[in-house]
Amino acid sequence: MDAAFTAEQDEMRRTLREILAKHCGPDEVKAAVRTGAGHDPGLWQQLSRRLGLPGLAIAEEYGGVGCAPADLVLACEETGRVLLPSPLLATAALAAPLVAALGTAAQRSALLPALAAGELTAALAVPGPALSTALALTGDNAPGDWAGGGRAGGVQARAVAGGWRLYGEVAQVLDGHSAGLLLVAAHTGGFARARTLLFLVRGDAPGLVRARQTTLDETRPQGRVQLRDVPAELLGADPDPGTAPGAAPDPLAALTAAGRHAAAVLAAEAVGAAGHALARTVDHVRRREQFGRPVGSFQAVKHRLADLYVQVQAARSAVYYAAWDAEQGGLALAQALEALRVTAGEAIQLHGGIGFTWEHDAHLYFKRAAGDELLFGPVHRLRGHAAQQAGLFAAAGPATSDPSATPEKAAV
Questions:
Q1: How far apart are CA 38 and CA 91, in angstroms?
Q2: What Å distances lie between residue 10 and 15, 21, 52, 122, CA to CA?
Q3: What CATH number should be reported for the domain holding residue 131?
């Protein structure tokens, strides 16, 4: 493994940092999240046209840059530094990989070029607060565990002449209020043979009702999506309405793969945010004086900052490894979210009285930490699932009534 960045990667990060420094300061972020879209469309177009940000990991044959997923991870460390509100996560890290993995040739040709160019944004809609389970980050994504299940709940799909129709509601969809394309997980096949598949729904489809939700972290806007007999297209299946539901590919493996890469992207954002929050805190304690000397000169403060630095650097190392090996995405995300939560909390305290005011910029980072852990965690479940996947928890042997029996004997 060569951990060194290429000249192209260094140039991309430098250019992206310069653009974000000019257009994405704390005041610009607060103004952007209060718009109807929840982000700055002008900045989004600039990032799309100048850097090809949403198309970094999309193949060149579909108009993308054709880079490895690791390049998107590195770019998202920069967007995380400034808490960039944008459709990047929902579009490039969640929706585009699913379209590329499951879509037919016609669907890929119709959707991926628009997604790569930033002309079309997309969102993944899964029932309930279960995005982390659907992506297999905190548990296996068996349909009954996250997709509603039973005779009610979730989104129901039924085949009709001319395609499919969806009915139901999804309460928490990242960028769901503004995305031009929705990838909706829905039940098909009735109760006895229920199966969860992914469907494409256009943002202007009749019967689609959307509204922006109030969220703790405004830099991650979410929408409530109601589907009232909405026309939809089965992702990955021939759009011929005569196609049987069983002919469509099972999306669970694709969701799991997308979850691994999305975890690395999220972890990179968290590490970027944690690193920037730490840098701002260090700068503050250098300038802030107490008892006639800088706050940062006190040994207790130095120790706290040193501990934060070690935690952030360890998380950054985990993220870079996950960018190379996507199987480590869940563990890297756990470490990065914890580093961001601890760093943001310490930033508020070390800023003193002003840090406790709700309007202070440090609270943007604290709310990002809390919001991401609610959406994609919690941390202990991320670690627990990663440990299970790695086989660290051996299956227990059958029970025995002999207290003198050793574990080896009990397992025989």
A1: 14
A2: 9, 16, 15, 28
A3: 2.40.110.10
Both tokens of 5, joined, read: 């960045």
- How far apart (Å, rounded) are the C-alpha atoms in residues 211 and 215? 12
Distance CA 47, CA 76 (A): 12
* Dihedral angle computed from the Cα positions of residues 101, 102, 108 and 114, in that order, rounded to the nearest 10 degrees: -80
CA distances in angstroms from 44 to 19, 60, 121, 406, listed in the order given:
11, 20, 10, 62
CA distance 4 to 86: 28
211 shares a domain with 288 = no
**326 neighbors 256 (Cβ within 8 angstroms):** no
Domain that holds residue 24: 7-97+109-120
Q: Are 373 and 216 in contact (CB under 8 A)?
A: no
pTM: 0.89
Element (H, E) at 160: strand 155-160
What is the per-residue pLDDT for 319? 95
DSSP per residue, 393-411: SPPPPPP-S-TT--HHHHH
* pLDDT of amino acid 314: 97
| Spatial contact of 333 and 267, defined as CB atoms under 8 Å apart | yes
Q: With respect to residue 399, please indicate whether it lies within any of the assigned structural domains.
A: no
* Whether the Cβ atoms of residue 109 and residue 59 lie closer than 8 Å to each other: no
Q: pLDDT under 70 in the chain at which residues?
A: 1-3, 143-145, 147-153, 189-194, 237-249, 394-412
Strand pairing report for 181-188 and 208-212: unpaired
The pLDDT score that the predictor gives to residue 240 is 47
Tell me the CATH number at 381. 1.20.140.10
Pairing of strands 163-174, 155-160: antiparallel
Q: Give the Cα separation of 183 and 197 in Å (integer).
A: 10
Number of domains, the chain: 3
Q: What's the confidence (pLDDT) of residue 9? A: 86
One domain, residues 167 and 209: yes
Kindly state the tokens that stand for 325. 């090996």
Domain boundary among 220, 249, 278: 249
Instruction: Count Cβ atoms below 10 Å from residue 309 Cβ, excluding itself.
Output: 15
What is the pLDDT at residue 2? 59
Q: What is the CATH number of the domain that holds 50?
A: 1.10.540.10
